Amino acid sequence: MTAYHAAWAWLGGDDLVAHVTIVEEGGAIIEVTTEGPTPHDAVRLEGVVLPGLVNAHSHAFHRALRHRTHGDGGDFWRWRETMLRVAGRLDPDNLAELATAVFAGMALTGITTVAEFHYVHHDVDGDLYRDPNAMGHALVDAAHQAGIRIVLVDTCYLRGGFDAPLEGVPRRFGDGDAERWAERVDLLRRFYREDPMVRIGTAAHSVRTVPPEALQTVVGYAASNGMPFHIHLSEQTAENEAALAATGRSPTQLLHEAGGLGPGTAVVHATHLEPADVARLGHAGVNVVACPTTEADLGDGLGPFIELATAGATLAVGTDQQVSMDLFAEARGIEHHDRLRLRRRGVHSPAALAAAATVGGARAVGTMQRGIAVGAPCDLAVVDPGAPTLAGWSPSDGIAGIVFGGSAYAVTDVVVAGRRIVEAGAHHRFDDVVARIDRAVRAVLA
Q: Residue 9 belongs to what H/E stretch?
């Protein structure tokens, strides 16, 4: 049992609370008090304590692409060509090294849970490894090494487009059919059943890569096993146009007809939606994972985030292709994208943006995190109000000051399952995370 004393903590709402004592046992919070004496043996967390940040959509191997995709210009589809070249170089060993470094970097930024959207399953010829989940195990082992939780979102990927087979590197992504995908995921689910730091999730990569019948199978498998279900949805206008041409339906309509809309569903991006799609997603209470720095980097467009939230969807954020490993920037991006689109300020409340990076993300990935509250996992991130970007901050600024002035570089301490894995800006297990990322990226690109 450990007691942590927070100089200031965010317990929800717009304000911060002073002198909060958080007591954990077995990795879960058993007591939160805001009055009375501080236990003499409490670990003092000097700064603003937030619930652990939740990265609700990540592709760890995309970190090797950072700053390497801009010379040729183009659009998402040009970027995708470079991404596929990197995907073709991965194996279980170099993926483990890269993901370990990337996840350790996430820990330094306050991320305590990552949802890894995993689709590079097989070898370069599309054949199964001796262990059919070798690549998935590499990602889970990486999270273990980095000390953070992982929701391994195992992704079904069956075709190259509405009328195209899997060819070239994407053969690595496919299992042949949804039934064989489910059999492989079953192995993962059983293997990690007793691991409290791991949850197995499900995904269909997109409606263009998973036919309607197979999409029904994936959705049904997720529902029958109580697993979160994720999908890239309407990320580009080209996806919408192709869906309408091939089926006469929007991607959201296709997902609805497959039974894929509900509180256990997380739609990623949701950038190009018709009003009817927004209403349908909101009415179903889905989770919407925004990745604003990626959406901006790829030129995808500006999503209707406030309309989705007003309709009933829960907002979350992810780092996606690791353009910026900073969930504060992603949360601000929700507001900034809506400001650019609507040409007005103050679209979302600061508390709503903070929730997107914490409890909203937890809902999207299906974890037990409910903020700093009794019964929740003891996952915490500490922000230093003395950091350069927060100079001039006052506690009276509340969570708005942290959301709009904070950054990944302002995080000093991180607690996961009651254990401090980052202290004074240093990872407990790795002396130099930057050098580790550098080596891992160079090894993949060599």
A: strand 2-9
For residue 283, the tally of other CB atoms under 10 A from its CB is: 12
Query: What tokens were used for 241?
Result: 């146009």
Q: Which of 137, 269, 272, 337 is catalytic?
A: 269
423 bridge partner residues = 426
- Distance between CA atoms of residues 389 and 396, nearest Å: 17
In the residue annotation, 137 being an active-site residue is answered as no
Distant-in-sequence, close-in-space partners of 293: CB < 8 Å, separation ≥ 6: 319, 320, 323, 324, 326, 329, 330, 333
Residues 6+ apart with CB under 8 A from 287: 56, 263, 265, 266, 267, 313, 314, 315, 316, 360, 363, 364
**What CATH superfamily classification does 2-51+371-427 receive?**
Urease, subunit C, domain 1 (2.30.40.10)
Q: Do 445 and 86 form a contact (C-beta atoms < 8 A)? A: yes
Say which of 154, 320, 338, 384 is annotated catalytic.
320
Q: With CA atoms as reference, report the closest residue to 260 among 227, 218, 219, 314.
A: 219
Could you tell me the residue ranges of all domains in the chain?
A: 2-51+371-427, 61-365
Q: Which CATH superfamily is domain 61-365 in?
A: Metal-dependent hydrolases (3.20.20.140)
Q: Is 413 helix (H, G, I), strand (E, B) or coil?
A: strand
Q: Three-state SS for 372? A: coil
Facing residues of 266 across strands? Answer: 230, 287
Mean pLDDT per 10-residue section of the chain, whose length is 446 residues? 95 96 97 88 95 98 88 77 93 97 98 98 96 98 98 98 94 97 98 97 98 98 97 95 96 98 98 97 98 94 97 98 96 98 97 98 92 96 96 95 96 97 96 95 93
Q: Give the CA angle between residues 273, 114, 377 to the nearest 5°.
A: 115
In this chain, the answer to whether the domains covering 2-51+371-427 and 61-365 adopt an identical fold is no
Cross-strand bridge partners of residue 412: none
Separation between Cα atoms, residue 198 and residue 202, nearest integer Å: 13
59 tagged catalytic: no
